[in-house]
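Honest question from a wet-lab person: if I give you the sequences of every part of a complex, can you actually get the arrangement of the whole thing, not just the pieces? Trying it with mine:
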Amino acid sequence: MERPDNLIIVIFGGRGDLAMRKIMPALYALYVENLMPEKFAVVATGRTGVTDIAYRGEVKKALDGMAEADRGAADEKVHAGIVDEKSGANSDKFVELFHYIDFDTSVAGEYKRLPDFLEMIRQKFSIGGNILFYLSVPPDLYDVIPRNLALQGLNNEGDGWKRMIIEKPFGYDYTSAEKLNRTLLETWNENQIFRIDHYLGKETVQNILVTRFSNGIFEPLWNRNYVHHVEITSSETLGVEMRGSYYEGSGALRDMVQNHLLHLVGFVAMEPPSSIDSTSIRNELVKVFESLRPISSEEVHRTAIRGQYTGAHVRGGWLKGYREEANVDTASMTETFAALKFYIDNWRWGGVPFYIRTGKRLPTRVTEAVIHFKPTPHYLFSGESLCDGCNQLIIRIQPDEGILLKFGMKIPGAGFKVKNVNMDFHYSDLAAERIPEAYERLLYDCMKGDSTLYTRSDAVLAAWKFLDPVLEAWKNDSSIPVYGYPAGTWGPEKADDLIEEPELTWRYPCKNLAEDGVYCEL
Ligand code: BG6
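Yes, you can. This is the full assembly:
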Protein backbone atom coordinates (compact mmCIF):
# COMPACT_ATOMS: atom_id res chain seq x y z
CA MET A 1 0.00 0.00 0.00
CA GLU A 2 1.18 3.49 -0.77
CA ARG A 3 2.09 6.00 1.86
CA PRO A 4 -0.19 9.04 2.07
CA ASP A 5 1.10 12.50 1.16
CA ASN A 6 2.84 14.54 3.83
CA LEU A 7 0.51 16.18 6.29
CA ILE A 8 -0.12 17.63 9.72
CA ILE A 9 -2.70 15.91 11.90
CA VAL A 10 -4.46 18.14 14.41
CA ILE A 11 -6.25 16.23 17.16
CA PHE A 12 -8.78 18.21 19.15
CA GLY A 13 -9.21 16.42 22.46
CA GLY A 14 -5.67 15.12 22.25
CA ARG A 15 -5.54 14.07 25.89
CA GLY A 16 -8.92 12.39 25.88
CA ASP A 17 -9.74 8.75 26.31
CA LEU A 18 -10.44 8.08 22.64
CA ALA A 19 -7.24 9.78 21.51
CA MET A 20 -5.11 7.80 23.92
CA ARG A 21 -6.87 4.45 23.58
CA LYS A 22 -7.56 4.36 19.87
CA ILE A 23 -6.12 7.18 17.78
CA MET A 24 -2.51 7.21 19.02
CA PRO A 25 -2.08 3.42 18.91
CA ALA A 26 -3.59 3.39 15.41
CA LEU A 27 -1.22 6.09 14.19
CA TYR A 28 1.70 4.24 15.72
CA ALA A 29 0.68 0.94 14.13
CA LEU A 30 0.51 2.68 10.74
CA TYR A 31 3.92 4.21 11.41
CA VAL A 32 5.39 0.80 12.17
CA GLU A 33 3.82 -0.60 9.02
CA ASN A 34 5.40 2.26 7.06
CA LEU A 35 1.98 3.57 6.14
CA MET A 36 2.33 7.05 7.55
CA PRO A 37 3.54 9.81 5.22
CA GLU A 38 7.25 10.30 4.83
CA LYS A 39 6.89 13.59 6.68
CA PHE A 40 4.19 14.24 9.19
CA ALA A 41 3.60 15.91 12.52
CA VAL A 42 0.82 15.66 15.08
CA VAL A 43 -0.55 18.69 16.89
CA ALA A 44 -2.75 17.82 19.85
CA THR A 45 -4.94 20.32 21.61
CA GLY A 46 -6.44 20.24 25.07
CA ARG A 47 -7.71 22.59 27.72
CA THR A 48 -5.01 21.99 30.28
CA GLY A 49 -1.49 23.24 29.81
CA VAL A 50 1.20 20.59 29.51
CA THR A 51 4.57 20.87 27.87
CA ASP A 52 5.39 19.02 24.66
CA ILE A 53 7.71 16.78 26.64
CA ALA A 54 5.09 15.88 29.21
CA TYR A 55 2.54 15.25 26.47
CA ARG A 56 4.91 12.97 24.58
CA GLY A 57 5.33 11.02 27.80
CA GLU A 58 1.55 10.57 27.99
CA VAL A 59 1.40 9.33 24.40
CA LYS A 60 4.24 6.90 25.02
CA LYS A 61 2.40 5.57 28.02
CA ALA A 62 -0.72 5.10 25.87
CA LEU A 63 1.32 3.15 23.34
CA ASP A 64 2.60 0.93 26.10
CA GLY A 65 -1.05 0.11 26.77
CA MET A 66 -1.55 -1.15 23.20
CA ALA A 67 -2.85 -4.68 22.90
CA GLU A 68 -0.04 -7.18 23.42
CA ALA A 69 -0.57 -8.63 19.98
CA ASP A 70 -0.27 -5.28 18.27
CA ARG A 71 2.78 -4.26 20.19
CA GLY A 72 4.27 -7.64 19.47
CA ALA A 73 3.71 -7.21 15.76
CA ALA A 74 5.15 -3.72 15.89
CA ASP A 75 8.26 -4.73 17.82
CA GLU A 76 8.77 -7.77 15.69
CA LYS A 77 8.82 -5.66 12.56
CA VAL A 78 11.30 -3.25 14.01
CA HIS A 79 13.60 -6.09 14.99
CA ALA A 80 13.21 -7.86 11.68
CA GLY A 81 14.26 -4.63 9.97
CA ILE A 82 11.10 -4.67 7.88
CA VAL A 83 10.38 -1.09 8.73
CA ASP A 84 12.16 1.58 6.74
CA GLU A 85 15.25 2.45 8.74
CA LYS A 86 14.81 6.10 7.88
CA SER A 87 11.39 6.30 9.53
CA GLY A 88 12.87 4.18 12.34
CA ALA A 89 9.74 2.72 13.88
CA ASN A 90 10.21 3.10 17.54
CA SER A 91 7.93 4.93 19.87
CA ASP A 92 10.61 7.40 21.04
CA LYS A 93 11.10 8.69 17.52
CA PHE A 94 7.38 8.58 16.90
CA VAL A 95 6.45 10.78 19.85
CA GLU A 96 9.08 13.34 18.81
CA LEU A 97 6.64 14.25 16.04
CA PHE A 98 3.99 15.29 18.59
CA HIS A 99 3.33 18.86 19.71
CA TYR A 100 0.84 20.11 22.20
CA ILE A 101 -1.07 23.38 22.21
CA ASP A 102 -3.48 24.30 24.97
CA PHE A 103 -6.54 26.24 24.06
CA ASP A 104 -10.19 26.26 24.86
CA THR A 105 -12.02 25.15 21.71
CA SER A 106 -15.22 26.83 22.84
CA VAL A 107 -13.59 30.30 22.75
CA ALA A 108 -13.53 31.82 19.25
CA GLY A 109 -10.53 34.09 19.96
CA GLU A 110 -8.29 31.12 20.73
CA TYR A 111 -8.37 29.89 17.14
CA LYS A 112 -6.40 32.94 15.97
CA ARG A 113 -3.27 31.28 17.36
CA LEU A 114 -3.71 28.18 15.29
CA PRO A 115 -2.63 29.31 11.77
CA ASP A 116 0.73 30.64 13.04
CA PHE A 117 1.33 27.57 15.14
CA LEU A 118 0.62 25.29 12.19
CA GLU A 119 2.86 27.40 9.96
CA MET A 120 5.68 27.00 12.46
CA ILE A 121 5.22 23.21 12.43
CA ARG A 122 5.00 23.16 8.66
CA GLN A 123 8.33 24.94 8.35
CA LYS A 124 10.01 22.92 11.05
CA PHE A 125 9.18 19.64 9.29
CA SER A 126 9.04 20.93 5.68
CA ILE A 127 5.47 19.77 5.27
CA GLY A 128 3.11 21.30 2.67
CA GLY A 129 -0.43 22.44 3.30
CA ASN A 130 -2.33 19.16 3.87
CA ILE A 131 -4.08 19.10 7.22
CA LEU A 132 -6.29 16.47 8.82
CA PHE A 133 -8.36 17.75 11.74
CA TYR A 134 -9.65 15.08 14.09
CA LEU A 135 -12.55 16.14 16.32
CA SER A 136 -12.20 13.81 19.27
CA VAL A 137 -14.33 16.09 21.46
CA PRO A 138 -17.82 16.18 22.97
CA PRO A 139 -20.56 16.46 20.29
CA ASP A 140 -21.56 19.99 21.29
CA LEU A 141 -18.28 21.15 19.71
CA TYR A 142 -18.90 19.50 16.32
CA ASP A 143 -20.23 22.69 14.83
CA VAL A 144 -18.13 25.15 16.87
CA ILE A 145 -14.70 23.85 15.84
CA PRO A 146 -15.31 23.60 12.06
CA ARG A 147 -16.88 27.08 12.00
CA ASN A 148 -13.93 28.62 13.83
CA LEU A 149 -11.38 26.78 11.71
CA ALA A 150 -13.11 28.17 8.63
CA LEU A 151 -12.98 31.69 10.08
CA GLN A 152 -9.20 31.30 10.20
CA GLY A 153 -9.16 30.06 6.59
CA LEU A 154 -8.14 26.58 7.70
CA ASN A 155 -10.75 25.00 5.42
CA ASN A 156 -9.11 26.54 2.38
CA GLU A 157 -7.55 23.96 0.08
CA GLY A 158 -5.48 26.39 -2.01
CA ASP A 159 -2.17 25.11 -0.57
CA GLY A 160 -3.20 21.47 0.11
CA TRP A 161 -6.22 19.45 1.16
CA LYS A 162 -8.04 20.04 4.44
CA ARG A 163 -10.12 17.20 5.89
CA MET A 164 -12.00 16.72 9.08
CA ILE A 165 -12.89 13.52 10.93
CA ILE A 166 -15.98 13.82 13.11
CA GLU A 167 -16.66 11.21 15.75
CA LYS A 168 -20.09 9.81 16.46
CA PRO A 169 -22.74 10.58 17.58
CA PHE A 170 -23.53 12.76 14.58
CA GLY A 171 -26.60 14.50 15.99
CA TYR A 172 -29.04 13.46 18.63
CA ASP A 173 -31.99 12.80 16.37
CA TYR A 174 -33.00 13.57 12.78
CA THR A 175 -33.53 17.30 13.36
CA SER A 176 -30.26 17.91 15.18
CA ALA A 177 -28.28 15.81 12.68
CA GLU A 178 -29.82 17.71 9.81
CA LYS A 179 -29.00 21.04 11.47
CA LEU A 180 -25.42 19.98 12.19
CA ASN A 181 -25.02 18.89 8.62
CA ARG A 182 -26.33 22.17 7.28
CA THR A 183 -24.03 24.16 9.56
CA LEU A 184 -20.98 22.16 8.49
CA LEU A 185 -21.80 22.52 4.83
CA GLU A 186 -21.92 26.29 5.17
CA THR A 187 -18.13 26.35 5.47
CA TRP A 188 -16.86 22.89 4.46
CA ASN A 189 -17.55 20.68 1.44
CA GLU A 190 -19.02 17.20 1.82
CA ASN A 191 -15.80 15.68 0.43
CA GLN A 192 -13.82 17.29 3.27
CA ILE A 193 -16.05 15.78 5.98
CA PHE A 194 -15.32 12.24 7.21
CA ARG A 195 -18.01 11.01 9.65
CA ILE A 196 -16.55 8.08 11.47
CA ASP A 197 -18.28 4.87 12.50
CA HIS A 198 -15.45 2.65 13.61
CA TYR A 199 -17.44 -0.51 12.83
CA LEU A 200 -16.95 0.18 9.13
CA GLY A 201 -13.20 0.08 9.73
CA LYS A 202 -13.36 -3.47 11.07
CA GLU A 203 -11.88 -6.03 8.67
CA THR A 204 -14.65 -8.47 9.44
CA VAL A 205 -17.36 -5.95 8.60
CA GLN A 206 -15.74 -5.24 5.23
CA ASN A 207 -15.47 -8.97 4.73
CA ILE A 208 -19.27 -9.18 4.66
CA LEU A 209 -19.09 -7.57 1.22
CA VAL A 210 -16.34 -9.93 0.09
CA THR A 211 -18.18 -13.00 1.38
CA ARG A 212 -21.33 -11.95 -0.42
CA PHE A 213 -19.98 -10.54 -3.65
CA SER A 214 -16.88 -12.59 -4.39
CA ASN A 215 -18.58 -15.99 -4.02
CA GLY A 216 -21.14 -17.41 -6.41
CA ILE A 217 -22.53 -19.76 -3.77
CA PHE A 218 -24.05 -17.36 -1.26
CA GLU A 219 -25.60 -14.62 -3.33
CA PRO A 220 -28.29 -16.73 -5.06
CA LEU A 221 -29.61 -17.70 -1.61
CA TRP A 222 -29.32 -14.22 -0.13
CA ASN A 223 -32.93 -13.10 -0.42
CA ARG A 224 -36.52 -13.57 0.68
CA ASN A 225 -36.84 -16.88 -1.16
CA TYR A 226 -34.28 -18.64 1.00
CA VAL A 227 -33.67 -16.50 4.09
CA HIS A 228 -36.09 -16.96 6.96
CA HIS A 229 -34.79 -14.16 9.14
CA VAL A 230 -31.64 -12.23 9.94
CA GLU A 231 -30.34 -11.71 13.45
CA ILE A 232 -27.63 -9.27 14.49
CA THR A 233 -26.19 -9.09 18.00
CA SER A 234 -23.62 -6.81 19.51
CA SER A 235 -23.16 -7.59 23.17
CA GLU A 236 -20.69 -6.20 25.66
CA THR A 237 -19.69 -7.38 29.10
CA LEU A 238 -18.63 -3.93 30.22
CA GLY A 239 -21.02 -1.46 31.81
CA VAL A 240 -20.90 2.27 31.14
CA GLU A 241 -17.60 2.59 33.01
CA MET A 242 -16.66 6.27 33.36
CA ARG A 243 -19.00 7.46 30.62
CA GLY A 244 -22.16 7.85 32.69
CA SER A 245 -22.81 11.48 31.78
CA TYR A 246 -22.40 10.84 28.05
CA TYR A 247 -24.46 7.66 28.17
CA GLU A 248 -27.32 9.26 30.09
CA GLY A 249 -27.93 11.51 27.07
CA SER A 250 -27.46 8.68 24.64
CA GLY A 251 -28.58 5.18 25.59
CA ALA A 252 -28.05 2.03 23.58
CA LEU A 253 -30.21 3.07 20.64
CA ARG A 254 -28.19 6.19 19.89
CA ASP A 255 -24.86 4.77 21.01
CA MET A 256 -24.89 1.48 19.09
CA VAL A 257 -27.98 1.00 16.93
CA GLN A 258 -28.17 4.27 14.97
CA ASN A 259 -24.65 3.74 13.69
CA HIS A 260 -22.88 0.40 14.23
CA LEU A 261 -25.82 -2.00 14.07
CA LEU A 262 -27.59 -0.29 11.21
CA HIS A 263 -24.35 -0.32 9.24
CA LEU A 264 -24.11 -4.05 9.78
CA VAL A 265 -27.69 -4.35 8.56
CA GLY A 266 -26.72 -2.24 5.54
CA PHE A 267 -23.77 -4.45 4.61
CA VAL A 268 -25.78 -7.65 5.05
CA ALA A 269 -28.75 -6.33 3.09
CA MET A 270 -27.36 -4.09 0.35
CA GLU A 271 -27.51 -4.83 -3.36
CA PRO A 272 -24.22 -5.46 -5.14
CA PRO A 273 -22.63 -2.07 -5.86
CA SER A 274 -21.71 -1.35 -9.47
CA SER A 275 -18.08 -1.12 -8.34
CA ILE A 276 -16.09 -1.00 -5.12
CA ASP A 277 -15.82 2.75 -4.94
CA SER A 278 -17.01 5.15 -2.34
CA THR A 279 -20.02 6.49 -4.24
CA SER A 280 -21.34 3.12 -5.38
CA ILE A 281 -21.06 1.47 -1.97
CA ARG A 282 -22.50 4.41 -0.14
CA ASN A 283 -25.36 4.67 -2.64
CA GLU A 284 -26.32 1.07 -1.95
CA LEU A 285 -26.07 1.54 1.79
CA VAL A 286 -28.38 4.50 1.79
CA LYS A 287 -30.90 2.62 -0.35
CA VAL A 288 -31.15 -0.01 2.40
CA PHE A 289 -31.68 2.65 5.06
CA GLU A 290 -34.32 4.35 2.95
CA SER A 291 -36.14 1.02 2.51
CA LEU A 292 -36.43 0.37 6.25
CA ARG A 293 -40.13 0.09 6.99
CA PRO A 294 -41.03 2.98 9.32
CA ILE A 295 -41.98 1.91 12.82
CA SER A 296 -45.11 3.76 13.91
CA SER A 297 -45.39 5.03 17.46
CA GLU A 298 -48.20 2.51 18.10
CA GLU A 299 -45.91 -0.34 17.08
CA VAL A 300 -43.02 0.59 19.35
CA HIS A 301 -44.53 -1.38 22.24
CA ARG A 302 -44.34 -4.56 20.20
CA THR A 303 -41.27 -4.12 18.04
CA ALA A 304 -38.76 -2.33 20.24
CA ILE A 305 -37.70 -3.58 23.67
CA ARG A 306 -35.55 -1.58 26.03
CA GLY A 307 -33.80 -2.72 29.16
CA GLN A 308 -31.44 -1.52 31.85
CA TYR A 309 -28.96 -3.63 33.82
CA THR A 310 -29.44 -4.10 37.51
CA GLY A 311 -26.85 -5.12 40.09
CA ALA A 312 -25.92 -8.79 40.27
CA HIS A 313 -23.24 -11.22 41.36
CA VAL A 314 -21.29 -12.20 38.28
CA ARG A 315 -18.38 -14.62 38.34
CA GLY A 316 -17.75 -14.18 42.01
CA GLY A 317 -17.98 -10.38 42.10
CA TRP A 318 -20.75 -7.87 42.56
CA LEU A 319 -21.53 -5.69 39.55
CA LYS A 320 -23.39 -2.45 40.15
CA GLY A 321 -26.66 -1.70 38.45
CA TYR A 322 -26.75 1.08 35.87
CA ARG A 323 -28.52 3.47 38.25
CA GLU A 324 -25.69 3.07 40.76
CA GLU A 325 -22.99 4.00 38.24
CA ALA A 326 -21.13 7.32 38.49
CA ASN A 327 -22.89 10.30 36.90
CA VAL A 328 -26.09 8.37 36.32
CA ASP A 329 -29.48 9.51 37.61
CA THR A 330 -30.73 7.18 40.32
CA ALA A 331 -34.12 7.12 38.56
CA SER A 332 -32.66 6.98 35.06
CA MET A 333 -34.82 5.62 32.25
CA THR A 334 -31.87 5.37 29.85
CA GLU A 335 -31.70 2.01 28.10
CA THR A 336 -28.53 -0.06 28.27
CA PHE A 337 -30.16 -2.77 26.14
CA ALA A 338 -32.19 -2.40 22.95
CA ALA A 339 -33.73 -5.01 20.69
CA LEU A 340 -35.70 -4.30 17.55
CA LYS A 341 -37.67 -6.20 14.96
CA PHE A 342 -38.16 -4.56 11.59
CA TYR A 343 -38.49 -5.14 7.85
CA ILE A 344 -36.73 -3.88 4.78
CA ASP A 345 -39.34 -3.14 2.17
CA ASN A 346 -37.65 -3.99 -1.09
CA TRP A 347 -37.66 -6.81 -3.61
CA ARG A 348 -34.83 -8.73 -1.99
CA TRP A 349 -36.05 -8.62 1.59
CA GLY A 350 -39.82 -8.15 1.45
CA GLY A 351 -41.34 -10.05 4.40
CA VAL A 352 -38.04 -11.17 5.99
CA PRO A 353 -37.83 -10.07 9.64
CA PHE A 354 -34.59 -8.52 10.87
CA TYR A 355 -33.90 -8.82 14.60
CA ILE A 356 -31.14 -6.76 16.15
CA ARG A 357 -30.06 -6.38 19.75
CA THR A 358 -27.30 -4.75 21.70
CA GLY A 359 -26.59 -4.31 25.36
CA LYS A 360 -24.08 -3.61 28.05
CA ARG A 361 -23.32 -6.04 30.89
CA LEU A 362 -24.40 -9.07 28.88
CA PRO A 363 -22.72 -12.45 29.41
CA THR A 364 -20.09 -12.17 26.71
CA ARG A 365 -18.63 -9.68 24.24
CA VAL A 366 -19.70 -10.72 20.78
CA THR A 367 -20.74 -9.04 17.55
CA GLU A 368 -22.15 -11.22 14.81
CA ALA A 369 -24.73 -11.45 12.06
CA VAL A 370 -26.66 -14.68 11.62
CA ILE A 371 -28.44 -15.51 8.40
CA HIS A 372 -31.11 -18.10 9.19
CA PHE A 373 -32.06 -19.96 6.04
CA LYS A 374 -35.51 -21.40 5.53
CA PRO A 375 -35.98 -25.04 6.46
CA THR A 376 -36.58 -27.67 3.79
CA PRO A 377 -40.18 -27.71 2.58
CA HIS A 378 -40.70 -31.26 3.75
CA TYR A 379 -39.10 -33.26 6.57
CA LEU A 380 -38.02 -36.43 4.91
CA PHE A 381 -36.39 -37.94 7.92
CA SER A 382 -39.32 -38.87 10.08
CA GLY A 383 -38.82 -38.95 13.79
CA GLU A 384 -36.32 -36.12 13.51
CA SER A 385 -38.00 -32.77 13.57
CA LEU A 386 -35.96 -30.26 11.67
CA CYS A 387 -32.42 -30.22 12.89
CA ASP A 388 -32.44 -27.44 15.40
CA GLY A 389 -30.54 -24.38 14.27
CA CYS A 390 -29.61 -25.94 10.96
CA ASN A 391 -28.67 -23.88 7.97
CA GLN A 392 -27.35 -20.81 9.64
CA LEU A 393 -24.51 -18.75 8.30
CA ILE A 394 -22.83 -16.87 11.10
CA ILE A 395 -20.59 -13.96 10.30
CA ARG A 396 -18.56 -13.27 13.40
CA ILE A 397 -17.29 -9.70 13.63
CA GLN A 398 -15.57 -10.15 17.00
CA PRO A 399 -14.04 -11.97 18.87
CA ASP A 400 -12.83 -15.24 17.31
CA GLU A 401 -13.41 -13.51 14.00
CA GLY A 402 -14.57 -15.85 11.30
CA ILE A 403 -17.45 -17.49 9.49
CA LEU A 404 -19.45 -20.54 10.50
CA LEU A 405 -21.90 -22.54 8.42
CA LYS A 406 -24.24 -24.89 10.26
CA PHE A 407 -25.97 -27.69 8.46
CA GLY A 408 -27.53 -31.09 9.07
CA MET A 409 -25.62 -34.33 8.54
CA LYS A 410 -26.47 -37.96 8.96
CA ILE A 411 -25.46 -39.45 12.27
CA PRO A 412 -23.53 -42.61 11.36
CA GLY A 413 -25.37 -45.82 12.04
CA ALA A 414 -28.80 -47.24 11.47
CA GLY A 415 -31.67 -45.07 10.34
CA PHE A 416 -31.52 -41.51 9.22
CA LYS A 417 -30.82 -39.36 12.19
CA VAL A 418 -29.77 -35.81 11.48
CA LYS A 419 -27.19 -33.89 13.49
CA ASN A 420 -26.25 -30.27 13.27
CA VAL A 421 -22.58 -29.86 12.30
CA ASN A 422 -20.28 -26.90 11.76
CA MET A 423 -17.94 -25.77 9.03
CA ASP A 424 -15.91 -22.85 10.20
CA PHE A 425 -13.16 -20.49 9.21
CA HIS A 426 -11.28 -18.49 11.83
CA TYR A 427 -9.15 -15.48 10.97
CA SER A 428 -6.69 -16.73 13.55
CA ASP A 429 -5.83 -19.51 11.10
CA LEU A 430 -4.25 -16.89 8.88
CA ALA A 431 -1.31 -16.94 11.24
CA ALA A 432 0.79 -14.46 9.29
CA GLU A 433 -1.93 -11.84 9.08
CA ARG A 434 -2.55 -9.38 11.86
CA ILE A 435 -6.09 -7.97 11.81
CA PRO A 436 -5.56 -4.23 11.88
CA GLU A 437 -7.57 -2.16 14.32
CA ALA A 438 -10.52 -0.33 12.77
CA TYR A 439 -9.00 3.07 13.50
CA GLU A 440 -5.85 2.21 11.54
CA ARG A 441 -7.78 1.50 8.40
CA LEU A 442 -9.99 4.54 8.80
CA LEU A 443 -7.16 6.97 9.50
CA TYR A 444 -5.21 5.62 6.56
CA ASP A 445 -8.21 5.94 4.26
CA CYS A 446 -8.86 9.50 5.33
CA MET A 447 -5.23 10.45 4.73
CA LYS A 448 -5.60 8.94 1.24
CA GLY A 449 -8.90 10.74 0.69
CA ASP A 450 -10.96 7.54 0.46
CA SER A 451 -14.33 8.03 2.11
CA THR A 452 -15.82 4.60 1.28
CA LEU A 453 -15.83 3.51 4.92
CA TYR A 454 -17.07 6.83 6.24
CA THR A 455 -20.71 7.73 6.57
CA ARG A 456 -22.34 10.04 4.08
CA SER A 457 -24.81 12.61 5.34
CA ASP A 458 -27.83 11.04 3.60
CA ALA A 459 -27.14 7.72 5.33
CA VAL A 460 -26.85 9.37 8.74
CA LEU A 461 -30.13 11.18 8.20
CA ALA A 462 -31.94 8.08 6.93
CA ALA A 463 -30.79 6.12 10.00
CA TRP A 464 -32.09 8.83 12.33
CA LYS A 465 -35.35 9.05 10.42
CA PHE A 466 -35.91 5.33 10.98
CA LEU A 467 -35.14 5.49 14.71
CA ASP A 468 -36.79 8.80 15.57
CA PRO A 469 -40.26 7.28 16.26
CA VAL A 470 -38.70 4.80 18.69
CA LEU A 471 -36.71 7.51 20.43
CA GLU A 472 -39.80 9.70 20.65
CA ALA A 473 -41.99 6.94 22.03
CA TRP A 474 -39.38 5.88 24.57
CA LYS A 475 -39.03 9.45 25.71
CA ASN A 476 -42.70 10.41 25.87
CA ASP A 477 -44.67 7.25 26.52
CA SER A 478 -44.13 6.21 30.11
CA SER A 479 -46.31 3.12 29.58
CA ILE A 480 -43.42 1.55 27.63
CA PRO A 481 -41.40 -0.23 30.30
CA VAL A 482 -37.65 -0.14 30.74
CA TYR A 483 -37.20 -3.77 31.71
CA GLY A 484 -34.54 -4.46 34.30
CA TYR A 485 -32.16 -7.33 33.62
CA PRO A 486 -29.50 -8.61 36.00
CA ALA A 487 -25.94 -7.85 34.90
CA GLY A 488 -24.43 -10.90 33.23
CA THR A 489 -27.66 -12.08 31.57
CA TRP A 490 -28.87 -11.81 27.97
CA GLY A 491 -31.13 -8.81 28.60
CA PRO A 492 -34.83 -8.70 29.41
CA GLU A 493 -36.80 -11.88 28.76
CA LYS A 494 -39.32 -9.71 26.97
CA ALA A 495 -36.84 -9.46 24.09
CA ASP A 496 -37.58 -13.14 23.37
CA ASP A 497 -41.15 -12.21 22.51
CA LEU A 498 -39.95 -10.17 19.55
CA ILE A 499 -39.42 -13.47 17.79
CA GLU A 500 -43.00 -14.47 17.31
CA GLU A 501 -42.53 -18.09 16.26
CA PRO A 502 -42.42 -20.13 19.49
CA GLU A 503 -39.86 -22.64 18.23
CA LEU A 504 -37.33 -19.91 17.45
CA THR A 505 -35.08 -18.03 19.85
CA TRP A 506 -32.14 -15.69 19.64
CA ARG A 507 -28.80 -17.39 19.21
CA TYR A 508 -26.80 -17.23 22.44
CA PRO A 509 -23.28 -16.83 21.12
CA CYS A 510 -20.21 -17.88 23.07
CA LYS A 511 -16.76 -16.41 22.88
CA ASN A 512 -15.76 -19.21 20.54
CA LEU A 513 -17.49 -18.93 17.22
CA ALA A 514 -18.35 -22.61 16.98
CA GLU A 515 -20.17 -22.72 20.31
CA ASP A 516 -23.46 -21.34 21.44
CA GLY A 517 -25.88 -21.81 24.27
CA VAL A 518 -26.93 -19.99 27.40
CA TYR A 519 -24.37 -21.82 29.52
CA CYS A 520 -21.30 -21.63 27.32
CA GLU A 521 -17.86 -20.89 28.67
CA LEU A 522 -17.36 -17.14 28.76
C1 BG6 B 1 -18.70 2.83 20.77
C2 BG6 B 1 -19.74 3.03 21.83
O1 BG6 B 1 -19.05 3.52 19.60
O2 BG6 B 1 -18.62 1.44 20.48
C3 BG6 B 1 -19.38 2.25 23.09
O3 BG6 B 1 -19.82 4.41 22.15
C4 BG6 B 1 -19.16 0.81 22.75
O4 BG6 B 1 -20.38 2.39 24.08
C5 BG6 B 1 -18.21 0.66 21.59
O5 BG6 B 1 -18.62 0.18 23.89
C6 BG6 B 1 -18.13 -0.77 21.12
O6 BG6 B 1 -17.11 -0.88 20.18
P1 BG6 B 1 -16.35 -2.26 19.95
O7 BG6 B 1 -15.43 -1.99 18.80
O8 BG6 B 1 -15.64 -2.57 21.22
O9 BG6 B 1 -17.41 -3.24 19.63
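Two things worth pointing out. The radius of gyration is 24 Å. The mean pLDDT is 91.
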